[in-house]
Amino acid sequence: MTQNLLKRLKGWPWLALTPVLLFILIACFGPSLVPYDPSAQDYSATLQSPTWSHWLGTDYLGRDVLSRIVGGARVSLVAMAIVLVAALAIGVVIGSLAGYIGGRIELVLISLIDVALALPSLVIALALIGILGTGYWSMITALTLAWWANYARMSRAVVKAELQQPYIEATRVMGASHLWIFGRHILPNVLALVVVYASADAGALVLAIATLSFLGLGVAPPTPEWGQMLVDGMSYIEEYPAIVIYPGLALTLVVVSFNLLGEAFALQKVPRPVRGRLLRRRRAVRATEERQRDAAEMGAKSI
Q1: Residue 46 and residue 26: Cα distance in Å, rounded?
Q2: What is residue 274's three-state secondary structure?
Q3: Helices (H) and strands (E) in the chain, counts
Q4: Where is the ABC transmembrane type-1 domain (predicted)?
């Protein structure tokens, strides 16, 4: 069991997974380790360069930049997690119903999905925020309602493909209920695909959260958030560009890391050509099997 676990862990894309895990750890435990409150103001230490007391300097209100970047990581992670879980739940339910039930219900749900996919997600989020108003939870609700359609489309496609498999018909013949068939056989395959796509979509969500906060439609000050930090630093970019560079680098690294992670998970589903030591090993095994088969045939003929 331990060997199988080690083999599975060895096959994971650790090069892409490590920055994502580092971001999650910083978001979870970083705020308890930084020496300053991200919202604490010190007007006697405004726009300072990096020092031993402030490793990344301070902003125009004397707030510690490192503490605000770490606090912004937590805000982005929590918002991203809420939106992903809610959008996955809505998308999987609607897409699975459309694929499993079929008929007129499928036609209505597919039309709804097509309408949601007709416009970019950020445009839909902006329109919904215009209706719901600005604020943190309005941003969460708007992004959730703008992000579910892709998961619904993929869920429907997987359900349709699984329903054509012979084992589904066999379970029906054996008297299994619709709930058992869906929960035991279809839902795991749906989640396996949708979660892989969500790992790449997480980076786009972090960027969308920062964009809405940058426009003043998401996280409101003084809560630390990377997009809000970019807005605060724009007025001082010429005399102190680091105040914009640091949150911009943090945002870029997180988005790129999630994109690489999603791409790595997707590539694991693609069959790779066998090369090197594994190819030689398989050839040796095949040659041994052929020799054993030939020896068995010779023994049978001699008898």
Answers
A1: 25
A2: coil
A3: 12, 0
A4: 73-262
